[in-house]
Each structure stands twice: as structure tokens, then as C-alpha cells.
Amino acid sequence: MRLVWYEFAKLFCRRSVLVLFVLFSVINLAKIYSEWDAYSFLADGSAERSWHTVYWQLYDQYQGPITPEKVQQLLATWQPLAQATADMTASTATDDANSLTGNLYSDRNLLEKYFVDPMQYCYEYGDRAASVAEKARQNAEAAAQAGALYQQRESAALYQIYAGRTVPDFAYTEMANYYLNYDFSLVLVLLLGLYGVAGTFVEERETQMDRLLLTNPNGGSRTVLAKLMAASGFLLLVTMWFSLLDLAGFGAAFGTLEGLDLPVYAIPSFAEAPVDLSVLQFAVLAAALRSVGLWALGMVWLAVSLRGRNALVPLVANFALTAVLVIGGASAAYSHFVWAKALDPYSLLAGRPLLAQTEFLDIGGFPVLSWQAALAISLVAGLVIAAAIYLLSPRNTYCPIRRLR
Fold first, then answer.
1. Quick one: which of 329, 24, 13, 300 has its CA closest to 188?
2. Is the pTM here over 0.85, yes or no?
């Protein structure tokens, strides 16, 4: 274990890595704040009639369980505004004393975007899910009659996923939406992970220290095992840090963590998510998948650099390989080539291509969700590559103590 800690310190405590860690963290937080500032209509300040102020004043009236009383109250406020502005002849004054924000059009837009449309989506989602579940049940029965066993199993699995789904509560979801759809930190994770581990085996070959290590009892395969464990820990640290930083950054930028306890399918872009989890639980799952994806890719990086004798060559080769996987994964992200997504560790890194859609793979006649298949494939591939690196590494046969044994 001391050897593992020593190898981890060699990876993480390099000045260049620490500088990149801090620099990328600052860049990530700045990018998150720019998302809030550029895309949220609530980023208009704290004036008395700003959307930000008016929204949070109204929010307490409508948050929580969606009831007929709340729906009627909201419609009683919004419908007169919709009717008054329908023919575009209403006053455009910005200091209307009888309006919430000073302008009738602004009032209507605020209520539509942040209350009417989200509440309608949540209210109707149960019926939409029930319709999908019923269609799946009918398909399962038809497949059973036709003797199509796999189609029957797939339809039954689809029924189990969508049956009983509802969104009974209304909450602020804008922060959760941008948080779950945020991908910029993925680029930073890839760059930092690649830079951190690509030279793991190269540095000692450049100085010919690898030969000297073969004369030490802890050299050879034991050192390689320690390097594999240290690199795995480093990659896990990178993904966990930026996953936590994303959540903290969005919470700070948007000024709230509201909506994290809603079902993830309360976010429209995740209406077809195959998991019945809250937004926070979904984020934890996505972070775990990202960790596995980066770890599997890290094992590939280590394999490429295993025999390298110059730090630049493995770094360039791994960068090119990563670019190919990223381009391929991004191209297949929302296509029907489900196997292409499951076989590419980038899909686990991005998360959304697998977790935002309910897709199955036929494995041995059983329907397996694409994200589960991708997880299993990356784990197996990473373990096989790690085992190959360990088994193909030089043994410390020159160690006098080893020879005496």
C-alpha cells in the first residue's frame, strides 16, 4: 500500500497536474456561471419587478403537490393575460402598476415559461407514461401469441419501466435541467485524465530507471500493480471532483438546489429515462458511469504507453485514439446504433446518450438496457486490459532476493 500511495503521489502531486487541476476547476466554474447568465431568464437581477424577484414570490404558492386548486389559481392569473395579449394590441408600457413585472407581455411570458408549461408537463406526464405502458402491455400479449419470445420480454420490460410513473409535485427545474445537460466538464476530465496517466510507464523508461527497478524486491510486476491501482485512484478522483464541482457550481450560480428530489423524468429532456430515480440519484448514477468510462479509457491509455520510451509519442497516440472514440460516440449518441454506444466508453463518460433514452440490446435472448450493457462491457474490457498489462510486464528476475527464493 505504501508503494500505491507513492505512485499516486507521483501522478497527482506533480506541479503541472496540480496547476491544471486548479485551472480547470476555475474554468469549469466560470463556464457554469456563464450558462446561468446567458440562458436563464431569472438572471435579470434582484429589482422589485425583475423576473427573478417575481418568480420566487410566486413560487411559494405553486410548489409542492399539484392540486386542482393550484391549477385553477394559476389559470385564473394566466388566462386573462393570454387573452389580453393574444392579438398583440395590449399596452407595451413597462411601468404598468397592475402588472407583476411592469409589462403585460412580460407577465404572460414569465407565467408560461416557468409555471404553466412546466406544471402542464408534470400534470400530463402520468397519462403519457400510462399510455406507453399500456401499449407495451398490448405488444407483449401480441408477441406472446405470435411466439416471439424476445419481443415479449422487451415489451414486458418496457411496461415495468413506465407503469405507474407520475410527477405529482411541481418544483423549480431550470437548474436541474442545465445541470443534467452540462457537458463541458467532460472535456476537462478527459484532458486531465489523459495528461495525468499517459506517462505512467514512460517516465522511468526515459531515465532507464525501469532496469534498476528489476533488481528490487518491489520492482517488476509489483510496481506495475501499484501503478495500475494508483492510476485508477487518480482517474476516480478526477471524475468525482468534477462531478461534485458541477453540482456545487450550478447550485451556487442558480442560487438554489430546488428540484433535486423530483423524479428525473420531470425534466422534459429525460422523459424517456429508463431509471426511476430522483434528479440527485440520477446525477450520482451518471457520475458513477462516468468514473467507469474514464477508468476503462485510462486502461487503454496505459496499454498504449506501456512500451513507450518517449513521453510525447504515447501522449499523441492516446490523444488521437481518444478523439476517434469521442467523435464516434458523439456521432452515435442519438442514433439507432445501440451497440455502437454500448461498445464506446465515451457513451458512459457523456452519460446522457444512454440514460436519456430507453433502449435495449438483445443479449442471449434477453433485453438488457443499453446503459447496463455499456457498464458491463467497459468493466470487463478495463479488467482484461489491466490484467494484460500486469501479466505482460517485466518480472524482477534480476533481484538477488528473488533468485535465492
1. 24
2. yes
